[in-house]
Amino acid sequence: MPRVVVVSPPFASHATPLSVLATALAAEGADVFFACAPEFAGLARGDGVTFVPLTVTRNANTGVAEATRQPAEEAARLREFLEATRAGAVPTLLTQARHRRADMLADPEGVLNALRGLHERLRPHWYVTDQLGFAVTLALHCMGVPYATFCPGHPGYLPADPDAYFGVPYDWPASLRPSPADAGLLLGAARRNDTAFTEAFHDFATRHAPSAPAPGRAFALCSPHAVVHAYPEFSWLPAPPPGPVRLFADHLAAPPAPLDAAWSARLDALRRHARRIVLVAFGTFLSARHDVLRAVAEGVLGGLPDTAVIVAAGERAGALADLAGDRAVVVPSVPQQALLEHVDVMVHHGGGNSFTECLRAGVPALVLPFSSDQFAVARDAECAGTGVVADPNALSASAVPALLEALPGDARAHAAWFAARLRTRGPRWAAGELLRVMGERTGPAGRRGRASLPAE
């Protein structure tokens, strides 16, 4: 059987779908090692999956970013990022562009050495690595070992053509489209990052693997064999460049576990006072924007008397505790996938996991994007007809009822159509296809032999 190492950065929103893919690969017959920071050992579940401790970046997010213990410098960058989200889309993306080198390529030599040691111990046939783990991708490229790329968010994370840049949405939702001046500032910052990262990749590869092919454009570096997208293959997305096989898995979510007794009781209590339930969750980072969480909850409670609300508030649950009542539940975290089987609408931040989980469950959404690829994801929600988009920083409680009522009448029908489609793919489909492609692309060694580590 093929031996595969799945390498994940220490971020819950990335490690969780990668662990689901690891479990699916094992179920399809592979011998799988899940390599991540020690805090994520619990994600290595199922027969055939073994956990290997491996830390590939200094910053981390074990579930709620504000609650994760990390170095002071990383915590300061998180605070700066969260503050930038209050200034709007372009200031946030500019802040992220400025942080990118420290966040994503902090210690490439250390990562290369760690992976070389891991490779000598385990001798896998090939690897799977997160596309945003740039140091890991660069190390695997220099090592000359076969690997597949996992793209955790919007497919635009991998630039599709020379005029596309990492950190610039392929398109914007109508309510957040920047001015030409702001768009120019963002494009300039992205181009500078593109040049700087590409030069850094080239210099690193020249020092550590002078006989290897040039890595080329840094943000476009990925497996020459296969890229797994935890995303649907929408017809309006820019066509990817030729090269690796693109596997659009639609989602990488494990089947939702049944709600426990406590959550079932909460839902029953809410249904006694409301006809509809809205789930509000902004992922593992942006629950810190409790001002927006409050605006949504107060808008539902004050303007939609037949509607209840469940709020995932992270570390800010205490600050929002006054909202709790007959029609409101406020908790630090929620079993999101399980709840999506029981709610009527979700309000989310445009994270790739939340978007695809809503599609999988057939739940329409109000999307309030703050950062990263969320603007591109929000645009796709508009194009798919499964949601409406608003600017979170311009949101008032009084506007929320109209936005929720503005969800197109056929939004649930569109979401249900996607739900039926997404159930034909998912983790097992992705694992089976990935094993097939990597076996075909890497030859007999990819299926039976051991990949050898070239001398430096």
Automatic annotation (TrEMBL):
Name recorded for this polypeptide: Glycosyltransferase family 1 protein
Q: Which PANTHER family match?
A: ANTHOCYANIDIN 3-O-GLUCOSYLTRANSFERASE (PTHR48049:SF65), GLYCOSYLTRANSFERASE (PTHR48049)
Organism, by scientific name, is Streptomyces zhihengii
State the Gene3D superfamilies in the record.
Answer: Glycogen Phosphorylase B
| Lineage of origin | Bacteria, Bacillati, Actinomycetota, Actinomycetes, Kitasatosporales
